[in-house]
Amino acid sequence: MTKFLNFLIKYRLHIGILSLLAAIYVNIQAGFWPSFVLYLIAAIMIVGHFLFGPMRLIQGYMEDGDVEGAKKVINSIWFPGLLIKPVRSVYYTLKGNLAMVDQDFDTAEKHMRKSLNLGSPVKEAEGANKLQLGMLSMQKGNFREAEGFIRQAIRAGLPDKENESAAYLQLSSIMVNKREFRAAKEYFRKAKALKPTTPQIRDQLKQMEKYITRIPG
Predict the structure, then answer these.
(1) Cα 16 from Cα 127, distance rounded (Å)
(2) Rounded CA separation 164/192 (Å)
């Protein structure tokens, strides 16, 4: 069923165009009513392609780690402005994620902000967007903005413990920068208590722990 659905999404526009051509031919040969079903299929397929896009396919590629496949599919969306609002939000989130992979942080931030302005259909996705914007702000040295985004991300809710741990770890780093050491230790404890398994976050925790343990109090 999943394979069939993915096939349908992938070739939805092609099926719609072929159905439209077939409908026109049947209409000429036999009249409108015999061609009605073909017109209906064509309308559903073509309108569906432009309103909903191939988001399911892109997310599948992203989950499999196939970045090039994801780029190819997302670049096939010619008119993102026609996507319905929740789908357009996901589109810009995925564009931002792909830009992050390429370390194109300015483009990533632009797309993430567009997604955030549109509003996310999933609360945790909104939190993840704000967390990424917070991390981008940190890379630019804008710690005040970073802190605001990360706090908003935690309030909005994050999709898993890995993201939660990363958020608290970043807050701990910001508090160290502000020399609010008690808060830094508290956020570090929260990050560590979540027991993340992502190697990058675990390494960051180890590095932060070396510093945190030397702070008095």
Answers:
(1) 37
(2) 10
Its pTM surpasses 0.85: no
Q: What is the rounded average pLDDT of the residues 121-145?
A: 88
Which residues neighbour 89 within 8 Å (Cβ) at sequence distance 6 or greater? 115, 118, 119, 120, 121, 125
10 pLDDT above the threshold of 70: yes
Distance CA 160, CA 214 (A): 30
Question: Considering only CA atoms, which of 106, 101, 155, 102 is closest in space to residue 131?
Answer: 155
**Could you report the per-residue pLDDT of 28-59, keeping only the tens digit for each?**
999 999 999 999 999 999 999 999 999 889 87
CA 144 to chain centre: 24
Q: Which domains does the chain have, with CATH numbers?
A: 123-217 (1.25.40.10)
Q: Residue 160: phi, psi to the nearest 5?
A: -160, 175
**pLDDT above 90: percentage of residues in the chain:** 74
Dist. CA 144–CA 171, nearest whole Å: 11
What are the CA-CA distances from residue 145 to residues 8, 61, 150, 157, 204 (Å)?
43, 32, 9, 18, 21
Rounded Cα–Cα distance for residues 5 and 99 (Å): 28
